[in-house]
Amino acid sequence: MDRTMAHLALAPTVAYGIEIKNAYGWPPLLSPIGSTEAHDDGILGFGLPDLQGGFENEGALGFLAILKDQVDLAEEDVDFLTTYLALRFPHPSRLTENWLAWNNWPTINHPAWYSPIRVLPGNWFLHGANPRLFTHWTIPLIGMKLVRRTGPGAYANVWNGDFSYIIQNQGSSTSYIPVILDTGSSLSYVSPELVNHIRTHLFPCQENRLLGNDSVPGVSFIVRDEHWDPSYCMEYHFQGTHGDVVIVHGEADPFLCTHDPTKSGQNFREGLVCVRDVMLHAGQIGAQPGAWLFGVNFFQTMYVALCKPHNMSTGDPYVKLATQWQNDLSSFALPRAK
Q1: What domain of life is recorded for the organism (predicted)?
Q2: How far apart are CA 96 and CA 192, in angstroms?
Q3: For 80-332, which CATH class?
Q4: Which part of the chain is CATH 2.40.70.10?
């Protein structure tokens, strides 16, 4: 979850044996074509394509393509392999339970899922291109704003908290911003216009004024404690599978910003939404012009279901989200053996 990759080496003489290695910084993975690592079969990831290219074993099946025949069938959506993810923000003094499951939700209680959200093909920006070439878990974001939660299911607007005009300006040709969901990134990456809006209009302070309109990738913002309201939430507007608008709410902390859990007495929150760096994310954002990326800080506010059809030539993948309230994590803990 910290941009490292799990690397898979399949043992041909052992029926169910695999070796997982940390592959961060390995040149064959950064530039896998022409790899001299003959035993490298691919990356252990949740990518949509059925085939992985660029490795010694050219055209090897993707991890999810293999997994679909190894796990129990879903009770619902039997034509899909569904990956459920529950990623939690780390607690400074105790272990935090994170889990993933396939096809069937594993806890006694079920979250309130929002309507399905469509996944964009990898070449969404090319006119006349193959509309079924799905490469990333990319979903269309129509609007986004900071709101206050005033009660169950009730929200109020925050002054200067609406970012939708930035999305509409940047997505003028499509009416949306493509957002890549990526558990391999600890942070989220957006346009400099959004980060500058947060610095100058939403949470102005001396530190943020010093940053000004600086668009250095990775440089974000701070939010002083006196400017923060614990009822703050994010409101996202996504495009649904039937062209409908799916309105999703999630806590603003830790998506937008949070206290550093390793520091005590910190009187401000650090921004976790940063200026995107096209070169840094050449494998994701660079391949999809204008795309944003929502990383682990987004997943820590949502239960996420990634739904991949067994037959990618006929079915369309989709994503489902459910709000992950920090004060209700125990209701969605895995059952313990007696």
Answers
A1: Eukaryota
A2: 33
A3: mainly beta
A4: 80-332
